[in-house]
Structures are given as structure tokens and as C-alpha cells.
Structure to design on (396 residues):
């Protein structure tokens, strides 16, 4: 450093090298962020295809079961017809009918009627067997289609899990690169100022910056602790006001007797099932809504529905800012459209039921501030309303 200050040419060269290094670190951060965004988008597409394939397989299997029932009914009817033919004597029904009418001319009309009925019975027998065969073949075909759809669903499930792992790894790499580059940038900027003969001013400013950063961090931690304390007090007040009943009655953050909590206050504004496509800022949702929307208003608190570990906290395609929590036993919950800067948790953090994890916004494919709430069983997103109601935390 002293030699650099004494030699202008050396100092200029070192300054240029430092500035180039800072620029390279910034490019690296941009590239890793872009990789994380791309992996997150691939994950969302794979999950959408997986859920659609699951519904298709169920529909095809239902058709196969219906055709099998038709075939069974037709076969039973054919059997009953065969039994009726056997009861006529087991030989030639026409001969039996003729012998019954022989010797009595007055019964000629009756004989003809019986022969006509016999002819219709035989004709119906042929139709029944043909229908049974056709229905059986249709059931076999639909069953084969169901098996193909099941195999497609399994392939998509594996693809979704692989995309998730890739997205998580990319996001973690981006976060680490960002933290390293920011730390290195601060260090290099201080060195740069020092090399320009501003050691005293730089040292004082650096120390002041460290103190300010510590103060801001302390204030952030205090604010987060206060938010948790307020949420816990509100939950306790809600429980006390309801007389200790198991249901939450739609009160956001209230923990039921089963350990589950309503993830946000507000009425249901969008249900699980088919819906019109929603686009916002270039992001468009799918045509099937695998969640329940709660109208929270902007900046409203979002609560963990159950105790667990945060497995995702970042941008995720049309979800916008998104948090996912694993609760064990193959059960997870998801919280989408969080406002920018609205995270209260990070990946790997353990949370409790009713804890404030974020605040509501309209990021991603959203046309207003609300919470998009999902429940996952294994790899499938199910209807959150009956699931939460069964656990005493009704959404509406």
C-alpha cells in the first residue's frame, strides 16, 4: 500500500485491477440469479404438467371402470338368456314349441306367437353377446390408456423433483455468490479508497458503516421478534376469546387444538379448480387453480399453517415471491405472491404454527394483494379447504 502511494503508476494499475474485479463479481451475481430464475420456471412447468397428468389418469380410469361395469352387465344378461334356452329342453326350441301345439288346430295362433317370441329371443341373444364383447374390448383399451397415463405421471413426477433440486441448488449458489461478492466489494472499495490516500477518512467511514450495519441488523431482529410476539399475543387472545375451541373460524394465525393455524385473515376470493387464466407483467397462470386464495390486503401478515422447516424462500415463476414449508409425513404448504422485501424467514429455518413468515403482496401472476395458499401431499397439490377444516383451521 505504501509503495503504491509513492508510485502513481503502480497505484493507477492497482486501482484498475480492483475496479475490473468488482465488475466481474457483479456479472457473476447476475448470471447465478438468472440461472436460479430459469430453474424455478422449469420447476413450475413440470409441476403443472404433473398435476394435469394425475387428473387425466383418474378420468381415464373412471371411464375404464364404467366400461367394465357395462361388460359385466351384458355378460350377466347373456348368461340369463342361455339359462332360459336350457330350461326349454336343452335341444331345439322350435321343435319343442311345435310339439306343444300338435293335435290342436285351435292353438295354431298361440304356436305362431311362441315361435315369433323365440326368434326375437335368439336375435336378442346375439345382440347381447356382441354388446358384451364390445364393452369388454373398450374396457381393455381404456385400461391400457390409464396405464400409459400413470407412467406419464410417474415420469413427470421424477422430472418435477429433479427440477426442484436443481432450482434449490441454483438459488443457494446465487445467494452464496451474492453474499461473497457484496462482502468482497465492500473490502475492495475500502482498499481502493485507501490506495487513493484517504486512509483516515476511509477507516472512520468503514467503522461507522460496520456500526450502522450492526444497528440496522439489531433493529431488524428486534422488529422480527416484536412481530412474532404480537402474533403470539393475538393468537393467545383469539384462543381465549373462543373459549379454547379447536377451530380457528378464519382468524389468521390462530392455532387450533390440532396444531394447525389459518395462514392469513380475509375471506376466500378464489377456490381450487378450473379458472380463467390470469396474466400480470408478462406472467400468466395456468387454467387450473391448485390452491385457495385469501383476500388479505397489501402488507397483511402471513402465518405458518403448521410447524415445520422452510424449504423455499425466493422468487418462483408465476408465484412471484414464494415460501414453502415442509411439515413432515409428506405434507407441505406453499405461500405465494409475497410482497418484495416481505420475507421473515429463510431456507432451513424451523418455524412454529401461527408464526409470521411473510407479508402479503401481488408479485407474480396476481391481480391484487392476496395470499395464494397451497397444500401438498407428497408430490400432489390438493384442495386446501377440506384439508384445513379437518384440522380445525377453517379457511372460510
Amino acid at each position: 500500500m505504501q509503495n503504491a502511494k509513492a508510485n502513481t503508476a503502480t497505484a493507477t494499475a492497482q486501482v484498475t485491477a480492483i475496479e475490473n474485479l468488482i465488475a466481474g463479481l457483479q456479472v457473476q451475481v447476475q448470471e447465478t440469479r438468472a440461472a436460479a430464475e430459469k430453474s424455478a420456471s422449469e420447476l413450475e412447468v413440470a409441476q403443472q404438467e404433473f398435476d394435469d397428468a394425475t387428473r387425466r389418469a383418474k378420468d381415464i380410469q373412471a371411464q375404464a371402470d364404467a366400461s367394465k361395469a357395462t361388460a359385466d352387465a351384458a355378460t350377466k344378461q347373456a348368461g340369463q338368456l342361455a339359462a332360459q334356452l336350457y330350461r326349454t329342453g336343452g335341444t331345439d326350441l322350435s321343435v319343442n314349441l311345435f310339439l306343444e301345439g300338435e293335435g290342436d288346430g285351435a292353438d295354431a295362433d298361440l304356436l305362431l306367437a311362441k315361435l315369433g317370441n323365440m326368434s326375437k329371443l335368439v336375435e336378442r341373444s346375439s345382440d347381447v353377446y356382441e354388446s358384451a364383447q364390445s364393452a369388454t374390448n373398450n374396457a381393455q383399451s381404456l385400461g391400457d390408456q390409464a396405464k400409459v397415463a400413470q407412467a406419464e405421471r410417474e415420469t413427470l413426477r421424477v422430472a418435477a423433483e429433479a427440477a426442484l433440486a436443481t432450482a434449490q441448488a441454483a438459488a443457494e449458489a446465487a445467494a452464496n455468490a451474492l453474499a461473497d461478492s457484496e462482502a468482497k466489494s465492500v473490502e475492495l472499495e475500502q482498499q481502493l479508497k485507501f490506495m487513493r490516500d484517504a486512509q483516515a477518512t476511509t477507516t472512520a467511514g468503514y467503522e461507522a458503516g460496520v456500526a450502522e450495519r450492526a444497528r440496522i441488523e439489531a433493529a431488524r431482529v428486534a422488529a422480527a421478534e416484536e412481530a412474532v410476539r404480537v402474533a403470539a399475543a393475538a393468537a393467545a387472545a383469539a384462543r381465549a376469546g373462543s373459549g379454547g375451541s379447536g377451530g380457528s373460524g378464519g382468524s389468521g394465525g390462530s392455532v387450533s387444538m390440532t396444531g394447525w393455524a389459518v395462514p392469513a385473515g380475509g375471506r376466500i376470493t378464489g377456490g381450487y379448480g378450473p379458472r380463467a387464466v390470469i396474466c400480470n407483467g408478462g406472467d400468466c397462470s395456468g387454467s387450473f387453480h391448485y390452491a385457495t386464495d385469501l383476500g388479505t390486503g397489501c402488507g397483511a401478515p402471513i402465518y405458518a399453517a403448521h410447524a415445520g422447516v422452510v424449504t423455499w424462500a425466493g422468487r418462483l415463476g408465476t408465484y412471484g415471491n414464494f415460501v414453502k414449508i415442509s411439515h413432515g409425513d409428506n405434507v407441505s404448504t406453499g405461500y405465494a405472491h409475497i410482497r418484495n422485501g416481505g420475507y421473515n424467514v429463510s431456507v432451513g429455518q424451523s418455524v412454529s404454527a401461527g408464526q409470521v413468515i411473510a407479508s402479503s403482496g401481488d408479485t407474480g401472476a396476481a391481480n391484487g394483494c392476496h395470499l395464494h395458499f397451497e397444500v401438498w401431499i407428497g408430490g400432489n397439490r390438493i384442495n386446501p379447504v377440506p384439508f384445513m377444516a379437518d384440522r380445525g383451521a377453517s379457511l372460510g
In short: DSSP finds six helices and 14 strands in the chain. Residues 268-389 form a domain with the Glucose Permease (Domain IIA) fold (CATH 2.70.70.10).
